[in-house]
Amino acid sequence: MSATEQLKKRFDAVFMPNYGTPPVALERGEGRYVFDVDGKRYLDLIAGIAVSALGHGHPALVEAVAAQSARLAHTSNLFLHEGEVALAEKLVDLLGAPARVFLANSGTEANEAALKLVKRAAGPERTYYVATVAGFHGRTSGALALTGKPAIREPFGPFGMDVRFVPHGDAEALRAAVTDECAAVFVEPVQGEAGVVPAPEGYLREVRAVCDATGAAFVLDEIQSGIGRTGRWFAHQAEGVRPDVITLAKGLGGGLPIGACVGFGAYGTAFAKGDHGSTFGGNPVAAAAALAVITTIENEGLLASAAELGELLAGEIREIGHPLVAEVRGAGLWRGVRLTAPAAAHVQSRAAEAGFLVNAVTSDTVRLAPPLTITRAEVLEFTGALPAVLAAAAGDADEDGRR
Ligand SMILES: *Cc1c(COP(=O)(O)O)cnc(C)c1O
């Protein structure tokens, strides 16, 4: 039995079956490559779900984490430390408007903080929330209540919250759903877990206008889209709008667990002392990692690179013109390749066989979210191998059809 098969067996015996058995057992990473426990090398085009923004083993991240864990690994919120302050200052600076920050440890916690924050700001007259069909905001009960994916949501309701779902990108449906009794609208600029589905241009401006007209809070979930993924610091900057609350996680820590909830203007001070907290939130090691990620994105010009190489990646895939590819969506180094058949799982496994990690985010869409440090040569290495991967996957799909 291979080392991978052995580890999978041990995994299955001790872990709850919520993830199924992951196909690849990773041991180490180096730049944009990862190696499995049998020594097979893969070019990483998913980066731990848009998390490992600097790739693997980036010296800036390694140094920041090592130095901070040696100096002081944890303080709790009973004490403050410089790193968390510097990180919050940096985030406010990048967002370009007066704001206050709450630091958490994950995306779902960032959204839980946002939910409590808007509840505090709205008061009891505002009784319901609006979110989007197929949207994803996390797995804890509050964030799950806002998640528009019935398969993962419905088994765990009722949530004790009135949440109304409108189609993503549909401004008219939004206008009809949001009244002055709505506490907040939760949206993603691009729906990540739905398959990297952008809203039509101008949609976020419409959300802003509806929220301005009704007084509902505009909460923008940039957990997957933020921190350079689309070629800008934040996806909403493409439309020049400002939400009331923004949530961040994933790429922010470059692989260390961290989340952030940022409130603009009056939303920054809506929590009173004692309203919210987290033992690990603002953890010094995670804060040092996030600062290293942001500084490295600046120093290495990774926003421009994400924009340019993202276009190259999308253009090369379109250029192949394979009949299995219906569409390449998204921006920057964050792409959904929609297929003409429900063959995404086949593309994922054929790609892994060929030494490339991609993600079947839905049955018919393959998600690509490589490290922002990926090079032109590495992009071309992938797109050069893709025709054979697609051909093999199309063969697998044909076989499904005959079965
Ligand atoms: C991943 C994700 C979350 C949840 O983040 P976790 O860290 O897994 O809790 C929430 N919203 C969006 C848009 C995400 O992509």
From TrEMBL:
Main localization of the protein described in the UniProt heading: cytoplasm
Annotated EC: 2.6.1.11
Binding residues annotated for N(2)-acetyl-L-ornithine, in chain numbering: 139, 278
Subcellular location: Cytoplasm
InterPro entries the UniProt entry points to: AcOrn/SuccOrn_fam, Aminotrans_3, Aminotrans_3_PPA_site, Class-III_PLP-dep_AT, PyrdxlP-dep_Trfase, PyrdxlP-dep_Trfase_major, PyrdxlP-dep_Trfase_small
A GO molecular-function descriptor: identical protein binding
Annotated binding of pyridoxal 5'-phosphate, by residue: 107-108, 136, 221-224, 279
Subunit structure, interactors included: Homodimer.
Miscellaneous comment text of the record: May also have succinyldiaminopimelate aminotransferase activity, thus carrying out the corresponding step in lysine biosynthesis.
Protein name (Swiss-Prot/TrEMBL): Acetylornithine aminotransferase
